[in-house]
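Appendix C: a fully annotated inverse folding record. The material below is reproduced so that readers can follow the format used throughout the book. The structure is listed first as C-alpha cells, followed by the designed sequence.
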C-alpha cells in the first residue's frame, strides 16, 4: 500500500501540473492535494500506528469511525430499551420531567414483562388518593448524639466534585437544590466557591485526601475542618470510605492539571501530584473510625456525621456494627453505594467487577443494622442509578430512607450520555473544564430543570406508593416488589432478602447467613479473623497449604 500511495501521489501531482498548462484553475486543487500528500508521507514513515503506516491517509478513517461509533449506536441502532448504562426510555423521562414536558407513554410498555429480572410493584384495590399521601416526605437525620439534626428530602444530589464537573454544572445543581429544598453532596473535591454561591444545602464529603481540611502532608487538619464545617450551608458531613465506581482504588491528580483555584479549594501545594490513597490515614480500625466520627461531630457542634461505602468484605461492615455496640458511638447516616459504578471515571475492571451491587448491599446493610438493633438511630441513603420514581420505591423497599442521584441529576442538566466524562470533551459542558464547552451550560436555565426533575420524580414515587395503598416510604415492605427470575417463577424482594429479627445479632444463635460473619469479624480490626473458626466443621472452607 505504501508503494501504491507513492505511485498515486506522483501520478496525481504530475497530472495536475500537466493539466495546468492548458487550464490553470486546476492549480487550486493543490490546496487539498499537497496537505494530503505530506500527511500520507508522515503516515508512511511514522512507526507507532501500523494501520496508518500500511494504509496512508485512508487508515485514519478507522479513528474517525471509532469516534462516530458511540453516536451512531445511540441515535440510529440501539432500541429504546437496550441503551447502557441508561436506556433511552430512562433518559427521555429525565429530560421530560426536567423540562416539565409530557412524560406519559402511549400504547403500553416496551419492556418484555416475561423476561428474567423484570420487576414490578403490586398495586392495591384500596389505593389512596394523592391528597392522602405526603406530597413532600422528609426524613430527619440525626441520632441521639446529634444536636443539629437535618430534615432531608427523600431525593438529593449524589457526590460529584468540582473539577469532575464544571463550575456552571456545580452552580446549577446547587441553585436547583435551593429551589427544591434538597441537599447537594460536594463530592470529595471539597467545598468550592461555586457550591456556596447557590445557597443550597450541602453535604460535605471528606475522602481519603481530606481535601479542604488537610495538612500539607495529607493528614487530617481539625482546625481547617472546624472552620468550614460550621458554615451555615453545610448541613451534614459524609466520610467516604469507598465509592461504587472504583471501590478500593485511590487516585492521583497530576501536578500538570492542578490549577491555583483547585489548590486553594483542596488545600494542596502547587507543583506537586495530589494523592488520594485507597485508605484513610485518620483511622485504621472500626473503633478508630467511630472515634473519628465522634471527633467530627464535636468539631461541627453536633451536625449529622455519616459515612459512605460500597460494600466489599461483608465482615468489615459487621465489624463496624460490633464497634458501634462496644463504643456506643453511631453515625447518623450511612450512604450505600452500588458496585455498578457512577459518575467517577474508573478502570474497566473496577467498574465491572469490584464491589457489591446496590440491591444486595442495601438489603445487607439494613439487615445488619437491624440485627444489632442500631437501625433506629441510623438513616440509610441509597446511591446508585436513580432515574425514576420506581427506582426510589425499590430502594425504600430494601431499607433505604433516602436516595441520592448523580447521573440522573447530570441528565437533568442536559447530559446526553456521550460517555466523554473522562476526556474533558463533554459536549454539554457538564463534565469538562473546557471554558468554551462550559459556556454552553446556562446556569439560570439548568437550575430550574434540576429542581423540576427532583419534584417530578418524587411526585412519581408518591403516585406509585398511593397506588399500592402506602402513605409514606417508611411503610414500604419488601413483599411489595416482585421480580421474575425464570419464565415460571416469581420472587418478591422478601423472598430474595428475608428480614432478620431486630436484635438477633446481639446474642446466639445468629441468623444462619450471619454465623460465619459474626465469627470472623472484629471491632478492633478490619481484617477478618479466621482463628476462631471450628475447622472440623468447616474443612471444606480451608485453603490448602502450599510451599
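Designed amino acids, in order:
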Amino acid at each position: 500500500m505504501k508503494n501504491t500511495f507513492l505511485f498515486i501521489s506522483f501520478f496525481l501531482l504530475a497530472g495536475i501540473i500537466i493539466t495546468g498548462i492548458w487550464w490553470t484553475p486546476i492549480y487550486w486543487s493543490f490546496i487539498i492535494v499537497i496537505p494530503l500528500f505530506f500527511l500520507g508521507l508522515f503516515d508512511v514513515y511514522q512507526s507507532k500506528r501500523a494501520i496508518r503506516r500500511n494504509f496512508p491517509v485512508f487508515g485514519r478513517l478507522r479513528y474517525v469511525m471509532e469516534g462516530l461509533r458511540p453516536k451512531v449506536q445511540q441515535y440510529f441502532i440501539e432500541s429504546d430499551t437496550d441503551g447502557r448504562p441508561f436506556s433511552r426510555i430512562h433518559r427521555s423521562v429525565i429530560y421530560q420531567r426536567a423540562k416539565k414536558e409530557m412524560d406519559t407513554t402511549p400504547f403500553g410498555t416496551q419492556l418484555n414483562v416475561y423476561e428474567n429480572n423484570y420487576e414490578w410493584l403490586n398495586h392495591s384495590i384500596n389505593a389512596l388518593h394523592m391528597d392522602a399521601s405526603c406530597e413532600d416526605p422528609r426524613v430527619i437525620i440525626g441520632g441521639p448524639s446529634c444536636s443539629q439534626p437535618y430534615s432531608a428530602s427523600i431525593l438529593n444530589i449524589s457526590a460529584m466534585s468540582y473539577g469532575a464537573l464544571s463550575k456552571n454544572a456545580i452552580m446549577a445543581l446547587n441553585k436547583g437544590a435551593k429551589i427544591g429544598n434538597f441537599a447537594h453532596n460536594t463530592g470529595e473535591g471539597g467545598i468550592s466557591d461555586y457550591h456556596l454561591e447557590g445557597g443550597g444545602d450541602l453535604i460535605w464529603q471528606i475522602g481519603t485526601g481530606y481535601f479542604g481540611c488537610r495538612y500539607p502532608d495529607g493528614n487530617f487538619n481539625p482546625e481547617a475542618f472546624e472552620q468550614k464545617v460550621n458554615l451555615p450551608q453545610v448541613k451534614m458531613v459524609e466520610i467516604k470510605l469507598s465509592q461504587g465506581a472504583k471501590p478500593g482504588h485511590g487516585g492521583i491528580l497530576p501536578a500538570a492539571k492542578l490549577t491555583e483555584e483547585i489548590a486553594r479549594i483542596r488545600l494542596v501545594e502547587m507543583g506537586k501530584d495530589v494523592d488520594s490513597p485507597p485508605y484513610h490515614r485518620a483511622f485504621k480500625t472500626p473503633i478508630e473510625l467511630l472515634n473519628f466520627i465522634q471527633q467530627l461531630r464535636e468539631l461541627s457542634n453536633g451536625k449529622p456525621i455519616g459515612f459512605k461505602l460500597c460494600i466489599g468484605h461483608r465482615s468489615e461492615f459487621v465489624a463496624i456494627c460490633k464497634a458501634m455496640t462496644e463504643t456506643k458511638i453511631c453515625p447518623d447516616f450511612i450512604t450505600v453505594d452500588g458496585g455498578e459504578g457512577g459518575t467517577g471515571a474508573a478502570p474497566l475492571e473496577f467498574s465491572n467487577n469490584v464491589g457489591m451491587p446496590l440491591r444486595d448491599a442495601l438489603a445487607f446493610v439494613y439487615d445488619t443494622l437491624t440485627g444489632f438493633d442500631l437501625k433506629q438511630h441510623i438513616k440509610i441513603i441509597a446511591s446508585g442509578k436513580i432515574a425514576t420514581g420506581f427506582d426510589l420505591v425499590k430502594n425504600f423497599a430494601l431499607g433505604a430512607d433516602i436516595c441520592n442521584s448523580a447521573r440522573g441529576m447530570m441528565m437533568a442538566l442536559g447530559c446526553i450520555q456521550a460517555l466523554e466524562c473522562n476526556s474533558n470533551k463533554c459536549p454539554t459542558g457538564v463534565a469538562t473544564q473546557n471554558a468554551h464547552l462550559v459556556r454552553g451550560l446556562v446556569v439560570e436555565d439548568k437550575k430550574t430543570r434540576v429542581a423540576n426533575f427532583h419534584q417530578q420524580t418524587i411526585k412519581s414515587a408518591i403516585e406509585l406508593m398511593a397506588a399500592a395503598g402506602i402513605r409514606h416510604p417508611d411503610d414500604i415492605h419488601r413483599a411489595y416488589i416482585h421480580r421474575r427470575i425464570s419464565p415460571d417463577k416469581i420472587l418478591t424482594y422478601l423472598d430474595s432478602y428475608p428480614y432478620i429479627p431486630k436484635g438477633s445479632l446481639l446474642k446466639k444463635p445468629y441468623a444462619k447467613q450471619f454465623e460465619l460473619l459474626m465469627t470472623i469479624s472484629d471491632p478492633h480490626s478490619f481484617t477478618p479473623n479466621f482463628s476462631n473458626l471450628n475447622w472440623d466443621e468447616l474443612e471444606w472452607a480451608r485453603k490448602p497449604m502450599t510451599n
